[in-house]
Write a structure and sequence with these properties.
Number of domains: 1
Largest sheet: 5 strands, mixed
Shape: globular
Number of strands: 5
Distance between the termini: 24 Å
Strand order of the largest sheet: 2-3-4-1-5
Strand content: 15-25%
Helix content: 25-40%
Length: 115
């Protein structure tokens, strides 16, 4: 299933707001779930990099370490695949799972969903 750019942007923005000093937002998402090269957050394009392996994540971090905006890294693996050194440079020092319901909550500025 393809993830629209606005959903990806909103989730990346939420993760970055929780840790504004972070240079990278790491999202768990399948490689074919997003086709774009960037998402617009606060009227600025943030680069989006699909990373097929832990080595690709490290290479993307090296490439975008000095960028003007944070980079959004998409990785389908687990935190254990990446290592603590990679997670330490990411927002909240973790791999965020893409969650459609969190996007809905944010769009409606709701605190919780009533089942």
């Amino acid at each position: 299933m393809k993830v629209p750019a606005y959903q990806l942007a909103l989730q990346a923005q939420q993760a970055h707001q929780a840790d504004p000093a972070a240079r990278f937002v790491l999202l768990r998402l399948a490689a074919d779930a997003f086709d774009g090269a960037a998402v617009d957050i606060d009227a600025e394009p943030w680069p989006v990099v699909v990373c097929a392996s832990p080595l690709a994540v490290r290479e993307a971090m090296r490439r975008y370490a000095t960028g003007a905006t944070p980079a959004v890294l998409l990785f389908a693996g687990t935190e254990e695949d990446l290592g603590h050194d990679v997670l330490a440079r990411c927002a909240k020092r973790r791999l965020f799972a893409h969650d459609l319901w969190q996007t809905v909550l944010a769009l409606f500025r709701a605190a919780s969903l009533d089942p």
